[in-house]
Structures are given as C-alpha cells and as structure tokens.
Amino acid sequence: MIEITYGSREPPSLTIRGHSGYSTHGTDIVCASVSTLFNNLVNSLSEFTDDLVSVRCSPGDGALIWRGHCSKSARLLLDSCLLGLRAVAEQYPDYVSFTVD
Asked: Distance of CA 25 to CAs 19, 43, 88, Å?
C-alpha cells in the first residue's frame, strides 16, 4: 500500500511511502499516478517558485519538506497535487491511504 501523509502545519510537508501492489512493476497505474503527481509537484516548485524545499525521491519513498515559508504560488501547486492524490486514494482505497497530520 502507498501511504501518503500531508503535514498541514506551516511549513507543510508531504511524505509518500510504499508500493501500491495494484499490478506488476512497470504496469501499475496506481503507482504511476502517485509518482507522476509527486514528481510534477517537485518540478513545478523548482520551475515556478523560489521556495526552499528539501526533496527525497527514491523508489517507494518520497518526501517534500519546506525549509522556511511556503509561498502563495507553492501553496497553490501543493493544493493541486493534494487534490489529485486524494482522488487516487478515494478511487483505490485498498492500495493508497491519505492522511492529514
């Protein structure tokens, strides 16, 4: 199961751990969806904001931790990603959990 934890306090954080087990490696649409949303957030923060963010990204383990204030632009990008992650978790509850901390 993929466990997504959103740390809602300021500054925010996002942690994603595990594998969905929905399908075999390379064909798992659940894992691909979560990975795409997370990677797009990382790339968007880098491209469109000046926020200082620590990133950890390896198979089955990803995290974003703000090092300072989360700007309005970064908040919008984060909220958009969270919307997508929640939707995946609602669509595939046996494979993805979403927790707000």
From this structure: 9, 24, 18
First-to-last C-alpha distance (Å) of the chain: 18
Q: Residue 23 carries which side chain, given as an amino acid letter? A: S
Buried-exposed string 56-88: b where 16+ CB fall within 10 A, e elsewhere: eeeeeebbbebeeebeeebeebbeebbebbeeb
Both tokens of 94, joined, read: 């046996």
Element (H, E) at 62: strand 61-66
User: For residue range 21-61, what is the model confidence (pLDDT) as tens digits?
Assistant: 999 988 999 999 999 999 999 999 999 999 999 999 988 89
Residues in the chain: 101
Phi/psi of residue 70, nearest 5 degrees: -95, 115
pTM, two decimal places: 0.94
Q: Give SS3 for 57.
A: strand
